[in-house]
Design brief:
Strand content: 5-15%
CATH architecture of the largest domain: 3-Layer(aba) Sandwich
Number of domains: 2
Distance between the termini: 52 Å
Strand order of the largest sheet: 2-1-4-3
CATH topology of the largest domain: Glutaredoxin
Length: about 230
């Protein structure tokens, strides 16, 4: 007999799957009869997520929202989410990550910084960013006029892609490491395509929503501000 926890998890996933499928069908039908109304809805979706603030134009990615590849990508991300046991208050798993400069494998928890550190430096300096599987590779959920980074087939390719990110965001002085090729961090923390966490003394004390719509740096700043009471704004 299936465990109650698994049944709840499976039902949660199926509810999402049915709801998401019906929304996509509705939007596709709406596009046939009223493309203008469909576009208005997609603009609202983009504005509610990181998409609206990215350097790309709306038309570079709008059509991909309703594609099969986008649908499958979202389904996998939600599956990771409902099957993950990492919640606020739980012990933070020590997944392996790979250093960009040396290629050495280290434990993710080795990058934990003292919370008081945020009072002395900017928020970005406090963060550790784990580069995961490429979210929008050519042949996948790809955008027009985007940086073309193929799906990683080896550790070397993932590290090379992470270095592109490092160079592209060189104004952001955060530590960047890469997930292993078995996507241990993405699966364990349910953070694909992106998600924010605060880990304190080996435990998860903040778990943000699943990105892009649930990715809010301001929430992390507010959490740290409330925790210390004296931290400055970035």
């Amino acid at each position: 007999m299936a465990a109650p926890g698994f049944c709840r998890m499976f039902l949660s996933y199926m509810r999402f799957l049915v709801s998401w499928t019906l929304q996509l069908i509705f939007l596709r039908i709406l596009g046939v009869f009223s493309p203008t109304k469909q576009r208005q809805i997609l603009v609202k979706v983009a504005k509610a997520t990181q998409f609206w603030d990215c350097p790309l134009e709306f038309d570079d990615y709008a059509d991909t929202f309703l594609s099969l590849k986008a649908y499958l990508d979202v389904c996998w991300a939600i599956w990771y989410d409902v099957t993950s046991t990492v919640r606020v208050g739980s012990r933070a798993p020590g997944c392996d990550v790979i250093e960009l400069d040396t290629g050495k494998t280290r434990n993710l928890l080795e990058y934990e910084n003292p919370v008081f550190f945020i009072c002395l430096v900017s928020l970005s300096s406090f963060l550790t960013q784990v580069y995961l599987a490429e979210a929008h590779p050519p042949g996948g959920w790809a955008f027009k006029n985007n940086i073309n980074i193929p799906r990683h087939r080896s550790v070397q390719e993932r590290l090379a892609a992470a270095r592109i990110l490092q160079q592209h965001d060189d104004h952001v002085p955060c530590t960047i490491v890469a997930d292993t090729m078995d996507n241990a961090v993405a699966r364990t923390y349910a953070c694909y395509p992106d998600r924010l966490f605060v880990i304190l003394d080996g435990r998860v004390t903040y778990r943000g929503g699943l990105g892009p719509e649930g990715y809010h740096l301001d929430e992390v700043r507010d959490w740290l501000q409330n925790f210390t009471g004296i931290c400055r704004q970035d």
